[in-house]
Design brief:
3 copies of one chain form a homotrimer. Chain A is of the alpha/beta class. The first copy, chain A, is 28% helix and 28% strand. Chain A has a 4-stranded mixed beta sheet, with helices on one face. In chain A, strand 4, helix 2 and strand 5 form a beta-alpha-beta unit. In chain A, helix 1 packs antiparallel against helix 2. The longest helix of chain A is centred in the C-terminal third of the chain and has 19 residues. Chain A starts with a strand and ends in a 9-residue tail after the last strand. Chains A and B meet through helix 1, strand 2 and strand 6 of A and strand 3, helix 2 and strand 5 of B.
């Protein structure tokens, strides 16, 4: 049940949000035991008036290239798996899409496995 | 404290998002003991570049008619009540608005009862 | 790790969303022991079709001036601190930006401290 919300600035190359989303999807698949094809994402594009960030919090230099990724997912992954997920997303967005590692802000929201329905009004994971 | 976020494609009939929201509100009222008039919803419209979904995950056939509903609500509902909520939303969106049952994706995020303020800077449920 | 989502109506004065965000940031700083500069916010603007609210729930009179603030933050704040946060946000939005206190809807989503990465693929708070 990952539901992924990606927020980034307008004016990037075409379908940039979708490309970021593909990388995030693949990283989840390869690190946190997410089932294949559990791929649901909502992307919003912003300008500097509607996406605010601190340019230096924790001594990380951020630019308007910031990408905010919030993932609602089933609870239970270990801290180590979460760390691996962050690292994998950051490395692949950098190597694959030339995103600065500093630009990648990730937030996880954990929910119970019965908290999702993928269609037909059924709690498929309950 | 349900706060409902509904994401769906542009180009539907007028006020489609609101109509979906009304059905979701009424379903919560009739199934999960939500107080009457606790009705707060945020709707975002997307195109295929900004709302991504798998067309067949869990053998459910999805089309651009997909509707993603994420509800932040107070914790404590049983699994049975959550299942009833999913079923009721799906049945009523289908019968009332002709939405395909397969199109309805629901995600619940549970929070403590002191985690909301409905106005005036007060935690009304704490 | 507060990630703040602010939803409000279009047609307000310039940068109104950002000004609201600044007040929310400062209120978190002054009440819930948030580190300075932990400032990340996503603002969405709506019309009456895409931001729905009840005009009188809990006997609070709401108008299109409603502002919905949802904050994802690390778990562990006491009920008293949360109450102080709500009160401080409401008082300052009222005194500083002339927002009606009744208009301020706040929702908190709490997460574990390892659930965020502020950049570089690292879980800085884990």
């Amino acid at each position: 049940m990952p539901l992924v919300r990606i927020s980034l600035m307008k004016g990037r190359p075409d379908n940039s949000g979708q490309k970021v989303g593909e990388v995030v999807y693949q990283a989840m698949l390869d690190t946190i035991n997410m089932p294949a094809n559990d791929h649901f994402q909502i992307i919003t594009e912003h300008d500097s008036d509607t996406l605010s960030y601190d340019p230096a919090y924790l001594d990380i230099q951020r630019t308007p290239g910031i990408i905010v990724i919030q993932i609602t997912l089933n609870e239970g992954r270990t801290v180590e798996l979460k760390k691996l997920l962050y690292q994998t997303i950051a490395e692949r967005l950098h190597s694959g899409l030339d995103v600065r590692r500093e630009a990648i802000f990730i937030s996880l929201v954990e929910v119970k496995k019965e908290n999702g329905s993928f269609g037909n009004g059924i709690a498929q994971y309950a």
